[in-house]
């Protein structure tokens, strides 16, 4: 096992989202009540028949009879309420962890999470957070219940026959410690979890790549590999089954010895007239019932092991250093139209990688538009990252309105820039909600102008729900082109002095692309505009063109007077 | 096994039996062990009850001391221990059965799936199948290993215990029977409400979870527009929404457990009351009262256990249904088994009015298509997307069987050719290649596991993959992760080209190669491929005729100018 110990991990997780004490306490109290009711039902019934056997008359047993019936009816609702309140407590704690995760991922998005890590970090992190709710639901709550009920049972037998308290206490203690210990000892190792991941990946590969495996005659080999991974997992499963069995035997052993000894002590006490005859059945019945609450502790320990594993992965992500830190005393952001400058700028994602761009000079003046072109991988999108201050420059300078961007708060830098990223995100909600994201107080007229500039006006007007049309998760209900143009309208509406657009016309037909470019230029009067594009026609309409290749500017063209009048 | 029991089991297992076949590789004995262990646990409880009752009765009514009852006391301890020991064997057998049944289901599904062909696996079905092959087969294992034995025990134990109670005290039997009779209607009533509530809430839960995910995924956009506080508020609200709607569902879902537990509690309470009153009147003995009291909860316990597994069981049955449906889909044959196939470089390949129809889709996916490819010739297939270009290449690979018409290799029908030997002669570059988890090197070696480094480098050069590798810090040993994350569509296809080059073959099938490249890059690729294609037969599905020079024939598919033998010669 790598990383911090389980105790440290659990400690940090609990500090991040303290148990919702009231709800958790309620769950524990209800659960302990239900378990105690199970024991009391048996013990009370035992006392009842013991007493009735002496034939004392109905009056003598009426009270006991009533108690037994009440307990018989109460037990089930207690258990039902416990399960609900334990889940409730788990969900409340979960909500806090989720917000914590969101806050921790914020400074890491997109860098370094997207730029350095493969796969979908967000999806995995959310699944890991979901796993944390078991800490209280399946971990802490059963443990506290078991201890409370065990203590109650020991007290009851101790009051009746003092010597038996020690016997039952020791036996319960061994089971209380031993059951979770065995489970913890047999918890899945990192290797087991890796094997589960490998098997899943191999199965996905087999399903998606079956035609190619067949084509290259490798299907049998791959099937064999799946079988081997499944074999590793099966061994882990056997170990777990052995541990579960061992827990059962340990608990049974403790119970067998304890019940027998408690009964022997009770018989002696009865003989010595230190025990009322009607209480004879109560002792072994209570001892038997007390061990019932110990059995679930193995599962609780396994649940805790999963929580620790998930927590360790989460903390590892949360502890990543942010790519960019705010300065201690940020300078106020400039206002009004402003010029953007990169001078001798170099950006590198990882030390052992070539720079994304190197020694780059770039000047965007208010009211002018610049195209950035070049093959994929040339570093164009990294320029956007640098301007949005998602990633720091390794060397060189970047400024907006003569203020160095590293002297400003990140949020202030971003408040100057309206951008459409290559994977601009639409959120589930209406078209309107998505368009006003950058300017929640926009008027209807402003929204309409932005939609018109993005060439969406007639389309939105034609929708039965208009602006109130739902776009679905990640804009799934729209076409790629519509999604892109809504993101564009959002950027244009934001009314920021700098506009940065990454491939705003990709996937649009030629005529639409032309109209979109004209719309962008028309809506950006007085702003500094940077457009990344592949299309020659787009480029021809802009004031200046920079051609990038392998992180450097290859060529510059500036055939329009600067600054050009907007529109 | 008696026939009503077998019938009930068939009913309970649904199509899981169809998935696992008549005999689940030696799980019979293990299954029996699990059932016997479950029964053994209940027998131990009865023995324990009888001994406890005996001891207490003899102590109270006959003044017996502990030393006079040593065998009973020791027996009591052993009975308690035996219950735990049976638990161990139950756990062991259940785990073994579950593992074997799950593995068998997965093996059958995957083995069958490999033969289903690309069109069957296309689209959303692949994701669903991957889930079936992992979670689905696991849940089948749990169904067979845990739920089924539990179900049998739940059916047998109450009968046995009730018989014992009846022989001991028939009035208690009547009470327990009355309560047991209430179990099925209660289960049906609450079970139906629970499943209704669950499916009602399911959509809402799924959409709230998806919303949480997209808020985290959309963080860069939220940061860019200064709306992080909005995102945080949404996360908190979505979590609160999840909590409330889940609790609403659970309130109903837990009702059936509540009903069972209530009946069990009432069972003990009523039995105790009636016994107490009868003891008062001297109509029952203390021994009978104590023994019956201790045993009565055991009537309900197996039912509660089986009911706790109910949801897992439903998942297993669903998985069985889905997997059985997949197993019913006809796989393409393996062709002849001779181990040899006609040589491509000595035989004419001819598609003879080849037409392919997929079940459940309107119209044919291809054809009828007739074309001819002589050794060393180059033919292009053109046509709009959906006209069946890829399907034609799949058919030649033997991945899809012709619906009508034939594929002839010289004088031999491809249907009778050993397909593995046939495919060894073909270098295939699929339209959307799948990259396997592992390194780029692993993916290239799929074409030829024993390839020398020299050949590897040659293939990389031919595909123009060298520029891509130079950009990656770990080069050939770059881990592609799941689904080749990190490479663009064009780069992935270059990996597939290098893989095909490494595999080699007298026939080259290129499916939309270069579609993701700009004209300059496509021109460069044409140049690189040129010498490798020399002397090989080439069939290329493309929108860009200039990709392969020296075409002998261009065949147009789908609606456009009449295609046929001869086509539009270039």
SSE layout and pairing:
The complex is a heterodimer of chains A (567) and B (570).
Chain A: H1 6-16, H2 21-53, H3 58-105, H4 113-116, H5 121-132, H6 134-160, H7 162-185, H8 190-215, H9 219-271, H10 282-292, H11 297-318, E1 340-347, E2 357-364, E3 369-373, H12 380-387, E4 395-400, E5 403-404, H13 410-414, E6 417-420, H14 431-435, H15 444-453, H16 457-462, H17 480-493, E7 498-502, H18 510-523, E8 528-532, H19 536-540, E9 544-549, E10 552-558
Chain B: H1 3-13, H2 16-20, H3 27-62, H4 70-114, H5 118-121, H6 125-168, H7 170-181, H8 183-217, H9 219-224, H10 228-253, H11 255-280, H12 286-308, H13 310-328, E1 349-356, E2 366-373, E3 378-382, H14 389-397, E4 404-409, E5 412-413, H15 419-423, E6 426-429, H16 440-445, H17 453-463, H18 466-471, H19 489-503, E7 507-511, H20 519-533, E8 537-541, E9 553-556
Parallel strand pairs in B: 3-8, 3-9, 6-7, 7-8
Antiparallel strand pairs in B: 1-2, 1-4, 4-5
Helix pairs in contact in B: 3-4, 3-6, 3-12, 4-6, 6-7, 6-12, 6-13, 7-11, 8-10, 8-11, 11-12, 17-19
Characterise this structure.
The complex is a heterodimer of chains A (567) and B (570). Chain A has helices at residues 6-16, 21-53, 58-105, 113-116, 121-132, 134-160, 162-185, 190-215, 219-271, 282-292, 297-318, 380-387, 410-414, 431-435, 444-453, 457-462, 480-493, 510-523, 536-540, and strands spanning 340-347, 357-364, 369-373, 395-400, 403-404, 417-420, 498-502, 528-532, 544-549, 552-558. By secondary structure, chain A is α/β, with parallel strands linked by helices. The two termini of chain A are 62 Å apart. Mean pLDDT of chain A is 87; it is low at 560-567. Residues 560-570 of chain B have low confidence and may be disordered. At the A-B interface, α2, α3, α5, α8 and α9 of A face α3, α4, α6, α8 and α9 of B.
């Amino acid at each position: 096992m790598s990383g911090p110990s389980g105790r440290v991990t659990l400690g940090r997780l609990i500090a991040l989202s303290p148990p919702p004490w009231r709800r958790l306490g309620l769950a524990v109290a209800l659960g302990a009540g239900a378990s105690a009711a199970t024991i009391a039902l048996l013990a009370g019934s035992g006392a009842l028949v013991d007493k009735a056997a002496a034939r004392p008359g109905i009056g003598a047993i009426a009270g006991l009879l009533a108690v037994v019936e009440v307990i018989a009816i109460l037990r089930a609702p207690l258990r039902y309420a416990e399960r609900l309140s334990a889940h409730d407590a788990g969900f409340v704690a979960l909500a806090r962890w989720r917000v914590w995760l969101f806050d921790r991922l914020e400074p890491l998005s997109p860098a370094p999470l997207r730029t350095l890590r493969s796969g979908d970090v967000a999806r995995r992190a959310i699944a890991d957070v979901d796993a944390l709710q078991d800490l209280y639901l399946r971990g802490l709550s059963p443990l506290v219940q078991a201890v409370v009920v065990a203590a109650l049972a020991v007290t009851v037998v101790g009051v009746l026959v003092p010597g038996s308290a020690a016997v039952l206490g020791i036996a319960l203690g061994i089971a209380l410690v031993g059951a979770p210990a065995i489970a913890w000892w047999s918890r899945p190792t990192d290797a087991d979890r890796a094997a589960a991941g490998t098997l899943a990946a191999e199965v996905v590969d087999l399903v998606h790549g079956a035609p190619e495996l067949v084509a290259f005659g490798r299907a049998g080999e791959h099937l064999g590999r799946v079988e081997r991974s499944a074999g590793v997992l099966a061994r882990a499963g056997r170990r777990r089954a052995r541990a579960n069995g061992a827990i059962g035997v340990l608990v049974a052993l403790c119970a067998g010895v304890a019940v027998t000894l408690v009964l022997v002590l009770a018989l002696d006490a009865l003989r010595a007239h230190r025990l009322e005859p009607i209480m004879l059945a109560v002792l072994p019945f209570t001892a038997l019932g007390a061990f019932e609450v110990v059995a679930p502790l193995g599962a609780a320990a396994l649940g805790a092991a999963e929580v620790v594993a998930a927590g360790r992965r989460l903390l590892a992500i949360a502890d990543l250093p942010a790519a960019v830190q705010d300065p201690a005393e940020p300078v106020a952001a400039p206002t009004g139209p402003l010029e953007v400058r990169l001078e001798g700028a170099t950006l590198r994602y990882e030390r052992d990688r070539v720079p994304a761009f190197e020694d780059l000079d770039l000047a965007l003046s208010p009211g002018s538009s610049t195209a950035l072109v070049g093959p994929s991988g040339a570093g164009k999108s990294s320029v956007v990252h640098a301007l949005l201050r998602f990633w720091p420059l390794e060397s060189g300078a970047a400024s907006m309105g003569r203020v160095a961007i590293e002297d400003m708060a990140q949020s202030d830098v971003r408040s100057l820039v309206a951008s459409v990223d290559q994977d601009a995100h639409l959120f589930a909600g209406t078209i309107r909600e998505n368009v006003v994201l950058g300017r929640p107080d926009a008027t209807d007229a402003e929204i309409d102008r932005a939609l018109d500039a993005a060439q969406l006006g007639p389309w939105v007007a034609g929708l039965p729900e208009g602006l109130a049309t739902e776009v679905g998760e990640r804009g799934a209900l729209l076409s790629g082109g519509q999604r892109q143009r809504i993101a564009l309208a959002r950027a244009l509406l934001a009314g920021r002095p700098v506009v940065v657009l990454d491939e705003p016309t990709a996937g649009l037909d030629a005529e639409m692309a032309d109209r979109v470019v004209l719309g962008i230029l028309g809506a950006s009067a007085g702003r500094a505009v940077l457009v990344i594009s592949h299309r020659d026609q787009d480029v021809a309409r802009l004031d200046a063109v920079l051609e990038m290749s392998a992180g450097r500017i290859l060529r510059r063209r500036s055939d329009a007077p600067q600054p050009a009048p907007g529109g | 096994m008696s026939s009503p029991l077998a019938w009930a089991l068939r009913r309970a297992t649904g199509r899981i039996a169809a998935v696992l076949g008549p005999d689940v590789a030696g799980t019979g004995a293990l299954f029996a062990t699990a059932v016997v262990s479950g029964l053994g646990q209940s027998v131990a409880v009865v023995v324990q009850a009888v001994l406890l009752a005996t001891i207490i009765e003899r102590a109270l009514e006959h003044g017996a001391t502990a030393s006079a009852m040593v065998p009973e006391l020791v027996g009591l301890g052993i009975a308690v221990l035996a219950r735990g020991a049976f638990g161990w064997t139950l756990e062991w057998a259940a785990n073994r059965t579950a593992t074997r049944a799950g593995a068998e289901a997965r093996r059958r599904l995957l083995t069958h799936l490999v033969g289903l062909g690309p069109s069957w696996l296309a689209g959303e079905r692949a994701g669903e199948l991957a889930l079936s092959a992992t979670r689905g087969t696991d849940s089948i294992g749990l169904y067979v290993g845990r739920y089924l034995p539990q179900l049998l025990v739940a059916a047998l134990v109450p009968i046995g215990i009730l018989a014992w109670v009846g022989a001991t005290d028939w009035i208690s039997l009547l009470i327990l029977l009355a309560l047991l009779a209430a179990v099925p209607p209660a289960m049906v009533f609450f079970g139906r409400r629970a499943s209704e509530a669950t499916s009602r809430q399911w959509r809402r839960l799924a959409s709230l979870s998806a919303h949480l995910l997209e808020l985290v995924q959309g963080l860069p956009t939220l940061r860019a527009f200064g709306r992080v506080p909005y995102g945080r508020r949404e996360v908190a609200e979505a979590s609160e929404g999840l909590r409330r709607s889940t609790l609403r569902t659970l309130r109903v879902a837990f009702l059936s457990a509540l009903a069972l537990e209530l009946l069990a509690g009432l069972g003990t309470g009523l039995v105790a009351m009636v016994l107490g009153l009868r003891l008062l009147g001297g109509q029952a003995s203390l021994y009978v009262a104590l023994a019956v009291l201790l045993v009565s909860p055991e009537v309900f316990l197996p039912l509660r256990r089986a009911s706790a597994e109910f949801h897992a069981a439903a998942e297993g049955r669903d998985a069985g249904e889905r997997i059985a449906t997949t197993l019913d889909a006809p796989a393409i044959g393996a062709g002849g088994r001779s181990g040899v196939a006609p040589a491509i470089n000595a035989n004419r390949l001819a598609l003879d009015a080849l037409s392919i129809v997929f079940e459940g889709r309107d119209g044919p996916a291809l054809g009828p298509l007739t074309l001819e490819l002589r050794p060393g010739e180059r033919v292009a297939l053109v046509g709009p997307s959906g006209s069946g270009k890829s399907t034609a290449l799949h058919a030649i690979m033997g991945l899809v069987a012709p619906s009508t018409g034939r594929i002839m290799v010289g004088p031999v029908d491809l249907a009778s050719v050993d397909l593995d030997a046939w495919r060894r002669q073909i270098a295939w570059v699929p339209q959307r290649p799948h990259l396997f988890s592992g390194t780029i090197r692993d993916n290239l070696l799929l074409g030829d596991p024993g390839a020398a480094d020299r050949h590897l480098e040659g293939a990389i050069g031919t595909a123009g993959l060298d520029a891509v590798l130079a950009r990656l810090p770990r080069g050939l040993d770059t881990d592609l992760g799941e689904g080749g994350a990190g490479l663009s569509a064009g780069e992935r296809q270059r990996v597939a080209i290098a893989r095909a080059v490494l595999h080699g073959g007298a026939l080259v099938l290129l499916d939309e190669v270069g579609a993701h490249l700009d004209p300059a890059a496509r021109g460069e690729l044409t140049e690189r491929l040129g010498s490798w294609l020399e002397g090989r037969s080439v069939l290329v599905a493309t929108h860009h005729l200039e990709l392969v020079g020296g075409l002998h024939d261009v065949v147009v598919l789908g609606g456009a100018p009449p295609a046929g033998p001869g086509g539009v010669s270039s």
